[in-house]
Structure formats: structure tokens, C-alpha cells
Write a structure and sequence with these properties.
The structure is a single chain. The chain contains 15 helices and 12 strands. It has 400 residues and is an alpha/beta fold.
Length: 400
């Protein structure tokens, strides 16, 4: 109920005096249970609302305290603001919407609040949306797990996405078995038992957590990471040959081999004319290095080829070729894949599941970090990522 309004010249702001309806007076600010009064509190209080024209606007009201059987002595509930917040619900909603499209600095400047307040508002809005949302883990069958760095000094977030709904499912600070175990604990044993496929990048902490909580789920190893192992092995071969040639004093040959790095690592369809010439020179003069290049390319083609069971046969053929290629790095790679990852790669070839969706989510998270010019706390970044790429749909106040 609006009692009065006035312009406060001292604060250069428009102030609206309000009070809750009698039917909702005397409720706990936390649980909204009807409680007995305790005292008048600290008198009148103001909440920042959306601007009126070019001046700030505040709601002003008395805020008595009540005695709640569960939460003790707390301030009474008001319908226009969250408990403990100094801003109205429409103001919080406007901040959250703007932050998904602007930098935190820009939002703080436009709405005349501090940079830290923007993060606090985002956290409040996200917490409310999470509490109101339906069960996020219902009907989840296929998920992807990965980590994303958000700050210098090895600061990471663990990210889980749902491949079927293509939405962010869970995100938390850190990247370890203990962190991921929290996600499976939140899901519960029954929902963990319903998981069928999990895409991952081969990290040990993901494998161990999955084995502990949902051993029936099949792990699909991300193709990009498998091919990156072959690319790393190829580059080790090139660098070893470069060091050997340089020790013999052949400076021109060593320089050519050093400059051929991208010609060897790039996909053939993306090579420039100069890189194609360098690759042709390696084919003519350096058969061991060219054989390593063919091994890398053949592994990449396995993931892009059509068919299902046929691709598993191609993988086994590649493992036999790599095992007898007489290139130590590829022999070791073939042994490691055959021992630890063959079944996981075959799951990928069969079900065609990769970490492409989660990598897209990670890219958006990094973009949000750059737009905001950094975050002092992981909680604020997590809240913003949930608003932007999660299941929440938030708009401007008063808009459909």
C-alpha cells in the first residue's frame, strides 16, 4: 500500500512511503510464517528501486521484528524485496538481466551501485531461481563433464551439462574428485543409476568419481582430446629430430623442421600453400616424421568417418599400426590407449557423443568473465553463468 511520496532534496531522490497489506503483516522474513511481534526494529528503512526519470527512487517503510519458532528473532517479511536485501525485486531483476548483456562495470555505472553489489544481486537472484525451479536432475540420461579456468593461478570451475536438453546442469568451484562427488551426491543414488552416457576428456578425477557413484554409465572419451594426444606425440617426434639435426650443425635443415610445426599439426584442408610445400618436403626427405604425421591424421579420420562398428575396427587397426611403427612416442600412446581408453573411445564412436556442447558452455563462461572484467569471487561468476547458459529465463521487469 502506498501511503505518500515526496522528493528528498538532501538525497536527490524520489522517496515513496509504503506498507504491507494487513493480511501479510507479522510474517517471518525467512520462511514467511505468521509469527508474533517482537519489537519495532530499527525504525524506518529504505530499499533502492528503479530510477524515476533521471533520479534514484527509494521505497520507505517501517520494518518491525518478529519471533519465529524456527529462525528466532528476524525482521518481518515485505513483498517488495528479498530478506536482507537493500534493493527491490524489480531492481534486482533489472541488474541480473543487464549483467548477462553488459559488463559489471557498465551495469554499476548505469544503475549507480557499486561493482561488488552487482555480484551480490546476481547471487541473490540465482539462488531464488534455483529454489523455485523444478527438479533439474529429473530424466537426465546423458551428461558431459569438464573443467574451465576462470582466473590466473589455476582457478577452475567444474561444469556439468545435459546433452539432451543442451543446458547447464551443475557448476561449482574447483576441479577434483571431491568436487564432482558433490554433484553425484546431489543427484542421489537413484538418478545416478539412471545415467547412461558421460562424455569426458580423460581426466583421472572424473573417471574415479564416475566409477564410485555410477559405475554402470559408459564413458565417451572426447575426440578432440584423443586427437590432441596424437598431435602432442607428433610434436615430440618433430622436436626430437630438430634437436638431433641441430647438434650435427645443419642449421638450414633444423630451421626448416622448426618452421614445419603448423604444417604437421593443422588439418590438411586448412594448410596454406607454403605449409603444403613444407609437408611435401617432409614426405620426400623424412619418412619417420611423415609416418608420425600419417598416424595422427589417421586417428583424426577415425572420428569423422561414417559407420559405427566399422569405426571400432579402424581403431583396432590404428592401434596395431602404431604399436609396430617403431616410433617410441606413438608406441607408448598405442599402449596407453589399448590399456586404459580403448572401450571409452569405442563408446564415443558408437554413440557419437563428445564434449562439444560443454566446450561451448566453457567458451561462454570465459566470455562472461571478460565482459565483467574479472570476478573477485567464484560465487558471483557461477551465478552469472547460471543466469546466462542455465535453465533460468529472466527478463526485464514488467516485460513478457
Amino acid at each position: 500500500m502506498v501511503e505518500s511520496s515526496r522528493f528528498d532534496t538532501a538525497a536527490n531522490a524520489f522517496v515513496v512511503s509504503v506498507r504491507p497489506h494487513a493480511a501479510i503483516l507479522g510474517r517471518c522474513g525467512v520462511c514467511r510464517r505468521s509469527c508474533g511481534g517482537y519489537d519495532r526494529g530499527r525504525g524506518r528503512r529504505r530499499w533502492r528501486s528503479l530510477d524515476v526519470g533521471l533520479v534514484a527512487c527509494f521505497l520507505e517503510a517501517d520494518l518491525p521484528r518478529v519471533r519465529c519458532p524456527e529462525h528466532g528473532v528476524v525482521v518481518s517479511w515485505v513483498p517488495w524485496a528479498r530478506h536482507g536485501a537493500g534493493h527491490t525485486l524489480p531492481f534486482d531483476q533489472a541488474v541480473a538481466w543487464k549483467t548477462t548483456r553488459m559488463s559489471k562495470t557498465g551495469v554499476a555505472y548505469e544503475l549507480r551501485i557499486s561493482w561488488a553489489t552487482v555480484g551480490q544481486v546476481i547471487a541473490r537472484v540465482t539462488a531464488d531461481l534455483d529454489a523455485q525451479a523444478e527438479d533439474p536432475y529429473a530424466h537426465v540420461r546423458r551428461i558431459g563433464i569438464d573443467e574451465v579456468s576462470y582466473k590466473r593461478g589455476y582457478k577452475f570451475l567444474t561444469v556439468v551439462v545435459d546433452h539432451d536438453t543442451r543446458r547447464l546442469l551443475w557448476i561449482a568451484e574447483g576441479h577434483s574428485k571431491a568436487v564432482l562427488s558433490r554433484f553425484f551426491t546431489e543427484m542421489g543414488p537413484q538418478r545416478c543409476a539412471a545415467l547412461e552416457l558421460i562424455s569426458a576428456d580423460g581426466a583421472d578425477w572424473i573417471f574415479h568419481a564416475v566409477q564410485d557413484h555410477c559405475p554402470q554409465a559408459k564413458i565417451c572419451l572426447d575426440p578432440f582430446h584423443v586427437v590432441s594426444w596424437a598431435s602432442k606425440a607428433l610434436d615430440e617426434v618433430r622436436r626430437g629430430m630438430w634437436r638431433a639435426i641441430r647438434r650435427t650443425g645443419q642449421k638450414m635443415a633444423a630451421a626448416d623442421l622448426r618452421g614445419a610445426r603448423y604444417a604437421l599439426l593443422k588439418n590438411p584442408e586448412n594448410l596454406t600453400d607454403k605449409q603444403q610445400t613444407a609437408l611435401a618436403g617432409i614426405q620426400a626427405t623424412n619418412q619417420p616424421l611423415y609416418r608420425a604425421y600419417l598416424l595422427k591424421e589417421q586417428l583424426r579420420v577415425i572420428f569423422t568417418a561414417g559407420g559405427g562398428a566399422e569405426r571400432a575396427l579402424l581403431l583396432d587397426a590404428w592401434l596395431r599400426w602404431a604399436a609396430r611403427c617403431q616410433i617410441p612416442t606413438f608406441v607408448d600412446l598405442a599402449r596407453r590407449i589399448r590399456t586404459y581408453f580403448r572401450d571409452d573411445i569405442i563408446n564415443t564412436l558408437t554413440h557419437r557423443l563428445s564434449n562439444g556442447l560443454i566446450e561451448s558452455t566453457n567458451t561462454k563462461s570465459r566470455l562472461l568473465t571478460r565482459m565483467a572484467y574479472g570476478f573477485k569471487s567464484a560465487a558471483a561468476l557461477i551465478a552469472l553463468v547460471k543466469l546466462h547458459v542455465g535453465a533460468h529465463n529472466i527478463g526485464l521487469p514488467g516485460r513478457a
